[in-house]
Amino acid sequence: MNNPIIELTDLTKCYGKKTAVDRLNLKIYSGEIFGLLGPNGAGKTTSILMMLGLTEPTSGTATICGYNATRNPLQVKKLVGYLPDNVGFYPDMTAVENLCFIAQLNGLAEEEAKKSAKELLEVVGLEANSDSKTGTFSRGMKQRLGLAEVLIKKPKVIILDEPTLGIDPSGVNEFLELIQRLSREQKLTVLMSSHHLHQVQRVCDRVGIFVDGKMIVEGPIDSLAQKLQMHEGFKTVIQLASEIENPTVLEKALQDIEGYKSLSVKQDTLHVLASKDITAEAVRALVYQNANIVSVQRNGYSLDDIYSKYFESSNQREVKHERKRK
Amino acid sequence: MKENVNNFFKNIFNPDGSSTGKSAFPPTPMKVLIRKEIGSHIRSWRFIILIALIVLTFGASLFVSFSGLRETINNAQDPDSAFVYLKLLTTSDNSIPPFHIFLNFLAPLLGIALGFDAINSEQNGGTLTRLVAQPLYRDNLILSKFFAPLIIVSVLFTSLCMLMIGAGIITTGINIEWQEVVRISGFIIISIIYVAFWLSLSILLSIVFRSGSHLCTDSDRNMVILHRILSYSNQPYHTTFHPKSELYFGTGIFSVE
To answer: Which residues form the ABC transporter domain (chain A) (predicted)?
Structure first.
């Protein structure tokens, strides 16, 4: 675990005056599933391209499996499987032919390539379509075929760029489970970029939130929530049976509790913010006020909160920038 | 001899030998790329249409030159009248141009049609990123886009000329002269180089421009302009598309006094 398989040091990429990736430092260890999260245009794809040696970084280095991606792209490409975001296949070739072509480019002999192509199509669940042309494939099927293609070169690392884009929810679940299973079985390191925290959080060991070319936070999802809690305080979400008629009364009742900070009311839900965990006291106080509580959610930071917190802060920065320009 | 020429070309473009045979050694990326390119070209509709066009012109001009062959050979004033097979390729009764002149304007068409979407179709189809993520050099990718159509075109031209010679031998029974073999081979090689020029130009444009339709109009215009410049350098060769002929005034791109 001490030897990172992907190591980025001060990786920077500028397009003219715009800095797409700003001094990115990242270490990913063998066997990990890492989620690179961020809104569109955050520089996720650029970072991935630099890791593969497909674009040259303005400064900094990307080391994959011990090879410098800029100096030794061929070695890196032998060990890394990359699934681009809008993956396409030659429409007039069958699934097996498409896979064989890529396998042969990676040095497999024809017979061997055919055999492993058939095996991998079974793994990704496309064995029934192995001899149909890829022009007829749906988006989800193409993604699966893309995964098979990534695996056919027997990589150590797989990099998936927006793998869940354009697939329906049940397809997303299946696809992510497949990735997780393969990663566990074959001890693959997976780097996944996405802007869907919800989808990715279930399979990732660690995530990094990447906004405006900068890595804002990095760590397991739980620790992200904790960090947010330290920063913002504890949040309790209490839902009442009916719409709240007089929020001021409730607020007064809550104000006496030690550590209480603020209350926000949205129709029938109360969001209580405090410097420490006051869930029990708050519920008691509300019950004395004859409030009909139907549900209480302690530690109410959801993924949405994490997401909007980090992404909003970047949006605000953008707004400020724009104002300055004006 | 023709086969030697053919093999010679194949070996230049494909140094590892045969392109279809199974080998125990893993294939090199270049070989795999060229094989795939040739395969997808041959199966494409575009290529079928092009080959039909060329075979039709070839058939028509051969028919015309066969029908006038007797007079051509018996023409005592022509010092080259002994070269039956050269006459087959170059004579015509003026109803349609002879084959070598047809080839002159079919070659740019062939080169451009086979290369104009070489790189940008991969880019638009999303296959380019996938391909460059494989362990191969980028120039291998571009060179395979160049050599694959060129191999097809060389095979096509060589076999057409061999068909012509075969038809001539069967109908006339006259032996082919050594000099004719050299001259016809020379013609084939020069035609292939001519196609290669247009092919490389269209591949260059396909890298520069992203959209195929953009490129088509652009390279058409370029084709006319460049064709025009070239036609100055070998005017006698271009009898039909002579700069001062009416066809060229019609385009209005260059006006010549």
So the answer is: 6-237
Cβ pairs bridging A and B (under 8 Å): 72
Residue B227 lies in a domain: no
* B233 at A interface, C-beta within 8 A: no
Coil vs helix vs strand at B213? helix
Point out which residues pair with A27 in neighbouring strands: A7
Mutation to test the B interface, candidates A48, A56, A101, A105, most B Cβ within 10 Å: A105
Q: Let me know if the fold of A4-219 is the same as that of A220-326.
A: no
Question: Which amino acid appears at position B89 of this protein?
Answer: L
Confidence label for B190 from pLDDT (cuts 50, 70 and 90) = very high
CA distance, residue B140 to nearest chain A CA (Å): 11
The superfamily CATH assigns to domain A4-219 is: P-loop containing nucleotide triphosphate hydrolases (3.40.50.300)
Of the pLDDT bands very low, low, confident and very high (cuts 50, 70, 90), residue B252 is very low
| A139 has pLDDT over 80 | yes
CB of B29 closer than 8 Å to CB of B136? yes
B35: closest chain A residue by CA: A101
pLDDT value for B52: 92
- State which residues form the domain around B91: 2-210
* Structure-block tokens of residue B130: 């996938």
Task: Judge whether residue B2 has pLDDT over 80.
Answer: no
- Whether B15 maps to a domain, the answer reads yes
Residues B206-242, buried b or exposed e (16+ Cβ, 10 A)?
A: beebeeeeebbeebeebbbeebbebbeeeeeebeebe
- CATH of range A220-326; options 3.40.50.300, 3.40.50.2300, 3.40.50.1360, 3.30.70.980: 3.30.70.980
Q: How far is B135 from chain A, CA to nearest CA, in Å?
A: 5
Can you tell me the mean pLDDT for A179-207?
84
pLDDT of residue B225 exceeding 70? no
Domain annotation covers residue B34 = yes
Domain ranges across chain A: 4-219, 220-326
Maximum CA extent, chain A: 78
How far is CA B38 from its chain centroid? 15
Q: What percent of chain A has pLDDT over 90?
A: 8
Across the interface, which of A92, A108, A153 has its CB nearest the CB of B26? A108
Q: Scan for tokens 């075109």, then name that residue.
A: B153
Strand A4-15 to strand A234-240: parallel, antiparallel, or no bridges (unpaired)?
unpaired
Of B33, B43, B126, the CB nearest to A87: B126
Q: Residue B236: its pLDDT value, please?
A: 41
ipTM above 0.85, yes or no: no
Q: What are phi and psi of A279, to 5 degrees?
A: -55, -50
Q: Out of B27, B125, B129, name the one closest to residue A104 (CB).
A: B27
Residues in chain B within 8 Å Cβ distance of A78: 135
pLDDT given at position B251: 41
Residue B249 forms part of a structural domain = no
